[in-house]
Design goal:
This protein is mostly beta strands. The chain is about 5% helix and about 25% strand. The chain is built from 2 helices and 9 strands. Strand 1 and strand 2 form a beta hairpin. The longest helix has 11 residues.
Length: about 230
């Protein structure tokens, strides 16, 4: 088992990825058309400091970077193309944040306690741990059916845990798409701040993945909201 852990760790070092293309109604849009261009658009490198403002949307420049806003319906599936595929073990999550009155998805910078989680996955345990997102080249989520109409940021996040056994070793890959949501209910959710929602020592961030083989996992951040 120890030998397997070393091989798995070494083999995963270079497998980085981004989320550049929005997927909606069966169409994968051109990169960075509806997704704010991320700082790692060329390097594919992760964020490792959970207190860094880049943990929010990983933007190359604050603001929308010229990205447009996609009109979607509550309940619809919205996704991201994964450039490089998800090659590291770890949890996938989706957050949303509603733009304040008077702002749009393009002008909203995501500051403040606005981010609520709409999805998270977790591992299956056995002789090895398996993750639902492993190897995926596209990830998606259903927009909550009860969500109030308005402008939103949709944030995808994957946390790579292959080096998470020491503080600062977890790798965060994230991006934010710009949406206008209609056709839902009237529900608004309280949220958390990014940065602010995570600590480097949270059990789902500081996590020994390989040995001894874990038997449980606690996702970091808030609970998934319910309509």
């Amino acid at each position: 088992m120890k030998t397997f852990a070393i091989i798995a760790l070494l083999g995963a070092v270079q497998a980085h990825y981004t989320f550049p293309g929005l997927v909606y109604n069966g169409v994968t849009e051109a990169d960075w058309t509806y997704v704010r261009q991320t700082t790692n658009f060329q390097s594919h490198s992760p964020v490792t400091d959970v207190q860094d403002s880049q943990i929010r949307c990983y933007e190359i420049e604050p603001g929308s970077n010229g990205a447009k806003t996609m009109a979607v319906k509550a309940g619809d599936s919205v996704g991201f193309r994964v450039d490089g595929g998800i090659q590291h073990p770890g949890p996938l999550a989706f957050y949303m944040a509603k733009a304040p009155e008077g702002q749009t998805a393009e002008s909203f910078d995501g500051e403040g306690a606005a981010w609520f989680k709409i999805y998270e996955d977790g591992p299956t345990f056995g002789e090895e741990i398996t993750w639902p997102s492993s190897g995926l080249e596209e990830v998606s989520v259903n927009i909550p059916t009860c969500l109030a109409e308005g402008y939103y940021l949709l944030r995808v996040e994957h946390i790579a845990l292959h080096s998470a056994g020491s503080t600062g070793g977890a790798q965060f890959y994230q991006a934010c798409a710009q949406l206008h949501v209609s056709g839902g209910g009237s529900k608004s959710f309280t949220g958390v701040s990014l940065p602010g929602a995570y600590k480097a020592t949270d059990p789902g961030i500081l996590f020994q993945l390989y040995w001894p083989t874990p038997t449980s996992y606690t996702n970091p951040g808030p609970a998934v909201v319910k309509c």
